[in-house]
Amino acid sequence: MIISMVIRVDMSYLSSNIRKIILNTFENKSISQKQSNSSNNNNINNDIIILDRETDVQKIKEILQYTLTKNRLNDYIVSENTKEENEIAILKNGDIEQLGIYTCSHCGMLFKSDVQRTIHQRIHYLF
């Protein structure tokens, strides 16, 4: 028995041109619902697409990364949202803070807030 899941792809940080590319990628997939925070119902303006009957989040991430690379959008990364299960976000490289993850620029350690990161980074200057 194959267990299927619902995977959400958050496109709220993307321009309308990139959203169109992503929607075209999943043209043949079962998209059960499109949610938008805006009042406009145009598909290109939708913030989140929901993929039904998927079995592997990693496979969807690989498809998205391949699509970005194929379209020479090397400034973007595909990341799992740590706050929402089975949600993938597409972010401009370096903007991972949009998901509430803060990275130390010295050692790469991850933090849940900017305050935690700032306190940690002060330690680097002591030594």
- Low-confidence sequence ranges: 35-45
Give the ordered list of helices and strands: EHEEHEEEEH
Helix content: 25-40%
Give the amount of beta strand, in percent: 25-35%
Main structural class: alpha+beta
Q: Which topology of the largest domain does CATH recognise? A: Gyrase A, domain 2
Give Rg in angstroms: 17 Å
Q: What is the name of the CATH architecture of the largest domain?
A: 2-Layer Sandwich
* Lateral strand order in the biggest sheet: 2-3-1-5-4
Morphology call: elongated
Name the CATH class of the largest domain: Alpha Beta
**Oligomeric organization of the protein chains:** single chain
Biggest sheet overview: 5 strands, mixed
Helical segment count: 3
Distance between the termini: 56 Å
Overall average pLDDT? 80
Tell me the number of strands. Answer: 7
Total individual domains = 2
SSE arrangement:
Blueprint: E1 5-10, H1 16-25, E2 31-35, E3 48-54, H2 57-70, E4 76-80, E5 87-92, E6 102-103, E7 110-111, H3 114-126
Parallel strand pairs: 1-5
Antiparallel strand pairs: 1-3, 2-3, 4-5, 6-7
What does this structure look like?
There is one protein chain. The protein is 29% helix and 26% strand. It is an alpha+beta fold. The chain folds into two domains: 5-93, Gyrase A, domain 2, CATH 3.30.1360; 96-127. It has a five-stranded mixed beta sheet with strand order 2-3-1-5-4, covered by helices on one side. The chain is elongated and about 55 Å long. The N and C termini lie far apart (56 Å). The relative contact order is 0.17. The model is unreliable at 35-45 (pLDDT under 50).
